[in-house]
Design a protein that fits this description.
- The complex is a heterodimer of chains A (about 450) and B (about 90).
- Chain A is an alpha/beta fold and about 450 residues long.
- In chain A, about 35% of the residues lie in helices and about 15% in strands.
- Chain A has 14 helices and eleven strands.
- The longest helix of chain A has 22 residues.
- The chains are: A alpha/beta (about 450), B mainly alpha (about 90).
Chain lengths: ~450, ~90
């Protein structure tokens, strides 16, 4: 059967008895069995669990918001009794005793879990090439990376192995792979979605990310996931605000740097034109500290990583520290150095202060515009192995994405077009804290205007 | 800014409880040097009178109410009485 590409079509099909939830699971599993070996997207397939849940759904009246929606999880989401590796050999046989809040919420809303997904080990990476279980290949062209660190979640949805997936976003790990695989990706406001049960990377930046084919589906997922759970003290409830009728958008002049690919730059101007055609004003703004995003991020993040990965001592969880992969070692050492006596003020304290200045830039910008349009990655998807020799070059991939994490604001990555070599490219819209619903509205308007239709790669 | 030496890499590996092979040390030294030099560009930013940011929510002291989860829990003065987990040495 041809599986539907939206939640709405899935549920209409189930209600009209065009297909059953069990048949949906059959179909996604067939796709996994056909392509997973080649693309290395799933680390664990939970077939039994999926059929059990599908049978339950088939006996229901399909009234829950995610009834019959087949979901897969990045392997850093704890899933009770199902192996969770974080893409690292340290946890190759770790079975969690409880599930993450987001996993519980999604499944309580009727979703069917089909498995656990490959990723850069401990979510360290921008290409999926740092997984201890091998690289994930881009379903649009297997010579290219999916992006990372949520490589599996982007691969799974674009290869039609699940309808939606959960990833995480600490510095772009949802938005960049979403862009590289022609998907909608959301990095929510810091404090909108609980991270309870998500293996921590950098606690002041980590957020739960979501992958879908459409903005409408993203909104449904977001409304299921958000809100306090009593376990993540950073999470705050909020009432969905009324959406403005007139928007004003901004593009920062500092985004047009050396290293920004000409096709990506052209696409940003096309996006601007599309919004203007709809009568939405787009103005130039200034974010003077843009060039310091990556340096600030690669101080704060490794510092927090070195602390969070301290718990992997070989006693409480899994294997000993010799099982850390190269990138984890690099970040732990970088963090330890930055936090060590004599360097704390020079690096860590300094980065926290520049972070304040970056936040001030955005507070200033949001006084004149409702949201900011930006590239996601400076380039279209790159080839496997292209950036692995030089870690710093790979870090510079994060120049446009780390912003939203450092400032704590939401950002919606949207598929836009394909490059001349046939690979997906897209952009992101960032708004003030808790402005997700306004971003959904802006995303929907854009996709209506360009007549966007969800597409699968395989 | 101090230049990273091989001794620094070995010291930081020790602080991190990581055992590195010689070839790893050789590989990491230039990579870490390059990254530290790059992040050191922050020194050119004026941060006089700027407060550091360690979180973005503005929330402080979020706590949940303490609850006694077992009905059998007995209190004695201001303490909870729980079953002994250690026995006296015989």
């Amino acid at each position: 059967m041809k599986t539907p590409l939206t939640i709405k079509e899935t549920q209409e099909g189930l209600k009209a008895k065009k297909f059953s939830a069990v048949e949906l699971v059959d179909s996604y599993l067939a796709q996994i069995n056909k392509y997973n070996k080649e693309f290395n997207i799933f680390l664990t397939v939970t077939e039994e669990q999926a059929y059990k849940k599908a049978k339950e759904i088939d006996r229901s009246n399909f009234q829950s918001p995610l009834s019959g929606v087949v979901v897969s999880y990045k392997d850093i989401f704890l899933t009770k009794d199902v192996r969770t590796t974080a893409g690292s050999k340290i946890l190759e046989s770790y079975i969690p005793p409880y599930s993450a809040t987001s996993v519980n919420r999604i499944e309580a809303a009727g979703a069917i879990p089909i498995g656990k997904l490959n990723c850069d080990a401990f979510a360290h990476g921008s290409s999926g090439e740092n997984s201890d279980f091998g690289v994930t290949k881009n379903p649009w062209n297997k010579e290219y990376v999916t992006g990372g660190s949520s490589s599996g979640p982007a691969g799974a949805v674009s290869a039609n192995m699940s309808l939606v997936s959960l990833g995480s976003d600490t510095g772009g790990s949802t938005r960049q792979p979403a862009n590289f695989c022609n998907l909608v990706g959301l990095k929510p406001t810091y404090g909108a979605i609980s991270r309870y049960g998500v293996i921590a990377m950098s606690s002041s930046l980590d957020t739960v990310g979501t992958f879908t084919h459409t903005v409408g589906d993203m909104e449904i997922m977001y409304d299921v996931l958000r809100g306090e759970d009593g376990f993540d003290g950073n999470v705050k409830n909020f009432v969905k605000p009324e959406i403005k009728k007139r928007f004003k958008l901004g593009i920062a002049k500092e985004y047009f740097i050396d290293g920004l690919d000409a096709e990506v730059e052209k696409m940003i101007f096309e996006v601007k034109k599309t919004y203007e055609k709809m009568g939405i004003e787009v103005v130039e703004i200034s974010l003077p500290h843009t060039k310091y995003m990556v340096p600030v991020y690669y101080i704060i993040q490794p510092a927090e990583v070195s602390s969070n990965l301290g718990r992997f001592d070989g006693i409480r969880y899994g294997n000993n520290r010799n099982s850390f992969g190269e990138e984890a070692k690099r970040r732990i050492m970088l963090g330890s150095y930055i936090l060590s006596a004599g360097y704390y003020d020079e690096y860590y304290e300094k980065a926290m202060k520049v972070r304040t200045k970056i936040i001030n830039d955005f507070d200033e910008a949001f006084k004149t515009v409702d949201a900011i349009i930006s590239p996601v990655s400076p380039t279209p998807p790159f080839k496997l192995g292209e950036n692995t020799k030089d870690p710093l070059k790979m870090y510079l991939e994060d120049v446009y994405t780390t912003t939203a994490n450092l400032v704590g604001i939401p950002s919606l990555a949207l598929p836009s077009t394909f490059s001349t070599s046939g690979l997906p490219i897209g952009f992101q819209i960032m708004g003030p804290r808790f402005s997700e619903h306004a971003l959904f509205e802006l995303g929907r308007k854009y996709h209506q205007e360009i007549d966007y239709k969800p597409k699968i790669a395989l | 800014m101090a230049r990273l030496t091989k001794k620094d890499v070995i010291h930081v590996a020790e602080l991190s409880n990581l055992k590195l092979t010689d070839s790893e040390i050789k590989k990491f030294l230039p990579q870490l040097t390059k990254i530290i030099e790059f992040v050191g560009t922050l020194s050119e930013v004026d941060t006089v009178n700027i407060e550091p940011t360690s979180q973005t929510t503005g929330l402080t002291n979020v706590v949940r109410e303490d609850r006694v989860i077992s009905e059998n829990m007995l209190t004695q003065e201001d303490y909870f009485k729980v079953p002994a987990i250690l026995t006296e040495r015989t």
